[in-house]
Amino acid sequence: MHTKTLHQNILSAEIHNIKMVDLVGQYHHIKSEIDAAIQSVVDRGHFINGPAVKDFELSLAKYLDVKHVIGCASGTDALQVALMALNLEEGDEVILPAFTYPATVEVVALLKLKPVLVDVQLETYNLDINHLNRTISNKTKVIIPVHLFGQCADMESIISIADEHGIIIIEDNAQALGSSFLFSDDVVNKSGTMGNLGTTSFFPTKNLGCFGDGGAIMTNDDELANKVRMICNHGQQKKYHHSIIGVNSRLDSIQAAVLNTKLVHLEHYISKRQNAADIYDIAFEEIDGLFIPKRSYWSTHTFHQYTLRVVDHKRDALKKLLDAKGIPSIIYYPLPIHKQIAYADIVAYSGILEQSEKLCKEVISLPIHTELTSADQEYIIDTIKNFFGSGV
Asked: Which domains does the chain have, with CATH numbers?
C-alpha cells in the first residue's frame, strides 16, 4: 500500500473511530440509571441471590411472557444446567447446528452426551429442517436450535418434529433475545419461550448485556424450573440440604441490577439495530456477489450481528480492505463445529455439511450497535460499494 493511501486511511479511521460494539457510548446514555442501580446493590450488601436478582428475573419473565426465568453465571452455564435438568444418560444424542459458536457443543461433550450435527440454511444461517428430519434416530433425546445472529430458527417445524418423536427442545437464545416468532395460527411467542427450556447469555456485547458474564434459563414448566434453580445453587433447595448434584452458577446482584436497568431500553436498542440493518440492506441488496441476511417471514430479527455473505472467494480481500480503512469486522465463524480440532472426533453427522462449510468461507459481520452514527455507516457502505465497483 502506498504511503499516501495509508495516511489517508489512518485519517479516515481517526475521523470515524468506528467500533464493532460501543459499550461505553451506550453506558453514557443511561449512566445515571446504571450508577444508581449498582449503588443500590452496594448499599444493601446483598451481592449473591439478593433482591436485585429476583427483581430482574421477574422483569424478564414479564417481558418474555414466560412463567420462570432463572439467572445463572453465563450463557454457557445456562445450556449446561438445562441439559443437567433432563435426566439424560451417557451417549444420548443431542442434535445441534454445525454452524454455531462452540459453547453449544461444548456442554454436550462435557456431560458425555453425543453431539449430532445438522446443516444450516444458507440464507438464514439457522437449522435446515430437511436435514434435521433425516438425522432423528431412536437415540435422539434433545434438539438445540440456535437462533443465530438475532432471528428464530423455524420453531414451528422443529416443535412438530420434536412432538412426533418425543424429543425435548432447548432453545439456544444467546443471540436473539427479544425476537418474536409468528406461528401459522397467528400465535406470537418470544424466542427462548417455545421449547421445554430456553437459554440466553448476557455477555456484554449481547443486545441485553451486563458488565461481565451472566445468563438465564427460561421455562413454563414448574418442575423443570425448580430443578434448574436447585442445580444452579449446588443442588440444594433448602440451605445445606443437597438433594441432587449441582453446580455453582448464580447471576450476581450487581449484574442483575445492570440488566434490569437496561431491560427497559431493550426494545429501543433492538429498533436502532433494525434501522441500521435496513440501511445496510438497501445499500447492498443490488450488489452482485454480496448477499444480505434473509429475514424469515416467521421471525422478527434483533440483529445481534449483521452478517453478509461474500461469494466468489472475495470475502478475505474485503476484510483486508475494511481493516485498512479502519472499519472493524468479524468472521462469525471461521470453522464449522466438525472442523474444530476439539470436536472433530466427538461429533456425529450424516452426509456433507456443505452449507455450514460454505458459510465459513463467505460470512463477514459488520458493525451494528446502538451508537452507530449515520456518518460511520455511510463510510462503511461507501467502502464496500467501492470494493465491488459500485461506488457513488
From this structure: 3-17+265-387 (3.90.1150.10), 29-263 (3.40.640.10)
